[in-house]
Amino acid sequence: MREMEPSGDSSIDILEVFEELKRPPLNLLPKERKLRESGIDNFKSGVLFRRTIFFDPKYRHLPVNDLRYALLHEEGHKKKKKYTTLVLEIDVFVILLSSFLISYSPINQKIQLAITYGLLPVYIFLLLSSLRIFGGAIQKDEYFADKYSAMILKQSFGVRRPSLIVESTLSKITSSRNKDALSYRLGVLFFGGLHPSDEERVGAIERTVDEQSDTE
Predict the structure, then answer these.
(1) pLDDT digits (tens, 9 = 90+) for 164-204
(2) Could you tell me whether strands 52-55 and 43-44 are parallel, antiparallel, or unpaired per DSSP bridges?
(3) pTM above the 0.85 mark?
(4) Sequence ranges of the domains in the chain
């Protein structure tokens, strides 16, 4: 039977935790970082909105250490999301280059538009295929963000076994998802497997962070 790591006061609001992480002496989040509600059914920090962490309001009152882990995980992505960003940058470059070549080609404008719209399925296929091809590299970004947040939980908040907090947070998020929703089904169809499984993520923290804390 797995031991339980205290998750903290479950009545605390996410905004209080967010401000705690920004304040001295912790300074774990930059002053310009923003927090906003969204219907994304998760916590997210996008490539386009790099100063903002989005969260689903139903996770507003998770236990304090779960909230710390989730917010620090997103900050970890901002620190190092190199593989995901690189794949997207390559895809965007290819799309823009092909659009440029079509626009400046000596063919009729109507034909140019027809070719551009006709290539949309190709662009979508390119994006999805590249994510699949580089899926293993993209998973490294996820492991890095997990380890980043887990190490801070251990070093700054005295959490002896951060893997238990990771497991607690992921289980709450996974169990609250509406698996019959169209958005969930489409997400699994197109992006399933890009993230390591919850079990793999928890296991990685057990090996790389928990064991280190046990031997220190």
Answers:
(1) 999 999 999 888 777 667 666 666 666 666 778 999 999 99
(2) antiparallel
(3) no
(4) 14-83+132-215, 84-131
Side chain identity, residue 118: G
Cα separation, 31 vs 189, whole angstroms: 37
CA distance linking residue 84 with residue 135, whole number of Å: 9
Three-state SS at 59: helix
112's CB contacts (< 8 A; 6+ apart) are 102, 103, 105
Calpha distance 215→209 (Å, rounded):
10
List Cβ neighbours of 109 (8 Å cut-off, separation of 6 or more).
none
What are the tokens at 35? 């927090």
What tokens does 7 get? Answer: 């998750």
Helical ranges in the chain per DSSP H: 14-22, 64-79, 82-103, 109-118, 120-133, 135-157, 162-176, 182-191, 198-205, 211-215
CA separation for the pair 75, 79 (Å, rounded): 6
42, 173 Cβ separation under 8 angstroms:
yes
| Paired residues of 65 in beta bridges | none
Sign of torsion over alpha carbons 102, 107, 110, 115: negative
d(CA 199, CA 210): 15
